[in-house]
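quick one, 481 residues, struct below
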Amino acid sequence: MFSKLQRTILFVAILLGTTSAFAAPRTVFVQLFEWPWREVARECELYLGPSGFSAVQVSPPHEHVSANGAWWERYQVVSYKMESRGGSEAEFADMVRRCNKAGVDVYADAVLNHMSGFPSGVGFAGSTFTHNNYPGVYSPNDFHYCGRNGNNNIVNYRDLYELQNCQLVGLADLATESAYVQQKMADYLNHLLDLGVSGFRLDAAKHMPSKDLAQITKRMKRSAYVFQEIIHESYGPVTYDEYFPAGDVTAYEYPFILGGSIKYGHLGNLLYIAKNLPSSDHSVVFVTNHDLERTGDGNILRYNGSDNSIYRLAQIFMLAYPYGYPQVYSGYDFNSYDQGPPLGSDMRTLGILAQNNSCVAPWTCEHRLPEVAAMVNFRNQTDKAFYVSNWNTDNTNFVSFSRGGLGFVALNFSGNSMNLTLQTGLPAGAYCNLTGPSYSRQSRKCSDMKYNVNSDGTINVNLPPYSSLVLLNRDQNKRTK
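---
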């Protein structure tokens, strides 16, 4: 079942002559956190485009504060000049052009709620500012002064007025109800659209009234994919659906349910993971992101640590399970909450890919794990069966399910091998494990078709510890070659 976004991507591709009406849609995007523009461009050409990704989300491209190189400096706006430690405007435009040519859209992380949290300073591009005065952009009249808590900061996150009129951790809070402010923001978004950007992640969206965001997005000169960061709490005071007029939302409880269910042996919960979340066609889902991997929350899975094995399986589950628009995350290893990416003496982000196109530390490049490209292909190919069938689990160690008659997934989350007989829903015959060592993501072909589905659709299989079995209907697999 195509979502509105997937239908749009497919329709535009057909119009441009880059695919046929029978090609699979592109249904997964990736966040390349803090990657510089020149490296994003290369990755679109070398990996993202050939692997079937729909889009890449890049870090905020605007001018930001430049102090100690912390990751959060990118989210402290100084001006809407396109100069950041990720690169120049010319490099950004070149990246967008090259990614689009490779069939990959670009989503820009857009920070609209606030400016900086510093009392004064000089931005990355040389713009001077004070906390509530950004010459040529905003004056003191363009900000909120909520008059609470002695410093205008949010203290009570359950109070709607404080949430949307006070400062988030000291960041100068823009008066988004102002027509002038709305137009300045729209001008920035429109400039990005002129450079070929196809969508936006709206940072800290719940700190802005939904009606303000709807007015800002209405001022965009053309349609674009928009999704909003809603760090949702069951107690409110905002709801997901009130933000739908401006775009989709982050289903923020998803990674907590996913990680907690896997870590603490409640795998049966995964069948109902979307039960209290926004509708699938309005939701962006992820295993983790740049904020969550730094929280230390016990339910959140983090790559490059003790969670490695189950993180990889969780990502397979997310890409196989029919809910939302999946975002694969890729960042860098860090030892402290504030730690930013590797920077040169000019404070620009250093390179990621070596001469042989391999990833260099501390960049983790988890989006390049061999199973990821295979699962992107699996999700693209099974989109027409956007539902679960043949669900099976012991609640603690394994899960298996089918995507109608198009695909099948089995996951062993335990440290023990498991001998199982499972219903796949697939036609009888020999199959390849898309997440096994004999499957080539480059050619999308298999050198060992050793998994045999019986005439009744069942399979007898041994699942090694922390392993997966992913089968794609052979007729679907032919479409990828």
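The two ends are 22 Å apart (CA to CA).
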